[in-house]
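Is this the right way to post structure tokens for a design question? Let me know if I should format differently. Anyway, here goes:
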């Protein structure tokens, strides 16, 4: 029998949770969303012409049992207490078209946090403290959807592990939060890799975790391969053999330490944050020293300023390589701009095999206004319009004018209310891109059309699209971290030798 010598600090929280009043179940109700669309279109790709009618529908019938919210165990009015918080807890009975109309339970808990609080000081029990901060995250691409993952476009100077944070927080004193983090590379009972395979359905919008794995290929012939979220973040829709934990916990027993500080000495006028973390041995997996600093300011209504820096010394790389990135952004109501700079061995600094890695940078500027009168960017009621310009891998692009990475987007839409229920909304979008993918030419794509609503919840749309774009992309000069590819924003260009366009006329009814 194995014998363990344990030196542990264990906090036992009550098994029967005493929830705050907001954790009660909701009153019986039903949320219904349904949409049906009939469209006729013609799609031209080179010498191939596709046309015809298309019938589409989607619905969601949801009976909420628990509304989405944070749940926190009730604490007594005492200076010493234990607290457990569940983040974004929700539970529903749901039926969707993709589930063939069957009802099923749909619920989740995004995260759990547990800590012991003693007169403002605290000790975290769960979850693992972050041994990094991402203060220098680049802005989102101009066209994005829920498949966008910031982690795919990030310099992550970090290491992982287990541990705790001992700190002190006081919102009444400059919103101060300071803490010391203690960590280990593994634990006294390391988990093995999972050998249990189950079938799991991915809808095309569900992310695969870094340690999770699916089998892609033909199981009967064994010609496929196991991939993790580091290779395929969003698997195509379908059923897959699935493994929850693809790798075992490390068996190197090393330690690490870190320090966090955040405060707002001038309230909204100035916010500061700082972190430093280091492993205490080169035998620690991903051994490094990383640090970051951030400053934020809102000196006037509508103006937001942010500056961030992240850096990392890699103890295992030659000459203790130092990599870093930094960002500065400014936003005032309708206008915004930003500068991002990163060192050679980062997602921004990496180049393809024909060019050496180098420190590089990106810039953007944008003007945008929304038609909603309640929006802070509103200039004219009913007008959605804007212009965006960006340059990614600017220093690399300057070395070759033909590959200068310029991206421009201009868009506009104006909603005219004809009466209380009837409205019409013409719209247009134009993308122009110049980079490696399009060679000596530029990439050009546009769409234009009009939407018309004769009565409430009925919409007619006529749209022409010439060329096509990729969402969640910055430019073909930038490489995504997990998918080692270079994706341009303009995919099919109007100026390409192959014609690519489509016209669609549709009628949509919504519930």
């Amino acid at each position: 029998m194995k014998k363990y010598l344990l030196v542990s600090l264990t906090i036992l929280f009550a098994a029967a949770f005493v929830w705050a009043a907001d954790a009660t179940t909701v009153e019986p109700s039903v949320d219904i969303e349904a949409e049906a669309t009939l469209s006729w279109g013609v799609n031209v790709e080179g010498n191939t012409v596709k046309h015809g009618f298309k019938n589409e529908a989607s619905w969601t019938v949801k009976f909420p049992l628990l509304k989405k919210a944070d749940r926190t165990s009730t604490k007594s009015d005492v200076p010493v207490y234990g607290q457990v918080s569940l983040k974004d807890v929700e539970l529903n009975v749901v039926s969707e078209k993709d589930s063939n109309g069957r009802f099923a339970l749909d619920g989740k808990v995004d995260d759990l946090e547990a800590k012991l609080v003693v007169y403002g000081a605290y000790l975290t029990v769960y979850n693992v403290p972050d041994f990094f901060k991402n203060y220098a995250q680049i802005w989102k691409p101009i066209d994005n959807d829920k498949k966008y993952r910031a982690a795919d476009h990030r310099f992550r100077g970090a290491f992982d592990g287990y541990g705790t944070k001992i700190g002190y927080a006081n919102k009444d004193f400059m919103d101060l939060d300071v803490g010391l983090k203690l960590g280990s590379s593994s634990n006294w009972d390391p988990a093995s890799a999972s050998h249990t395979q189950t079938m799991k359905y991915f809808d095309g919008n569900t992310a695969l975790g870094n340690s999770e794995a699916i089998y892609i290929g033909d199981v009967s012939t064994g010609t496929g391969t196991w991939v993790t979220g580091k290779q395929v973040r969003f698997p195509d829709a379908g059923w897959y053999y699935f493994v929850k934990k693809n790798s075992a916990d490390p068996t190197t027993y090393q330690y690490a330490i870190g320090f966090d500080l955040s405060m707002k000495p001038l309230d909204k006028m100035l916010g500061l944050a700082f972190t430093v973390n280091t492993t205490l041995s080169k035998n620690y997996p991903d051994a490094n020293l990383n640090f970051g600093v951030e400053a934020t300011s809102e000196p006037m209504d509508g103006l937001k300023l942010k500056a961030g820096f992240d850096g990392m010394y890699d103890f295992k790389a030659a000459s203790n390589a130092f990599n870093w990135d930094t960002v500065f952004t400014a936003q005032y109501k309708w206008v915004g701009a930003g500068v991002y700079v990163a060192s050679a061995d980062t997602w921004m600094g990496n180049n393809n095999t024909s060019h050496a890695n180098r420190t590089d940078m990106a810039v953007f500027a944008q003007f945008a206004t929304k038609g909603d009168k309640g929006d802070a960017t509103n200039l004219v009621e009913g007008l959605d319009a804007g212009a965006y310009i960006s340059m990614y891998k600017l220093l690399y692009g300057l070395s070759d004018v033909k590959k200068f990475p310029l991206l421009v987007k201009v868009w506009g839409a104006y909603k005219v209310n004809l009466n209380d229920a009837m409205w019409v909304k013409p719209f247009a979008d134009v993308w122009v891109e110049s980079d490696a993918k399009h060679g000596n030419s530029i990439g050009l794509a546009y769409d234009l059309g009009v939407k018309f609503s004769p009565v409430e919840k009925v919409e007619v749309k006529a749209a022409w699209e010439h060329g096509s774009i990729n969402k969640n992309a910055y430019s073909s000069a930038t490489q995504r971290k997990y998918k080692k590819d270079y994706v341009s924003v303009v995919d099919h260009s109007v100026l390409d030798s192959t014609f690519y366009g489509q016209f669609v006329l549709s009628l949509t009814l919504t519930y």
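Format looks fine. Someone answered above. Worth noting: The mean pLDDT is 83. The CA atoms of residues 154 and 247 lie 23 Å apart.
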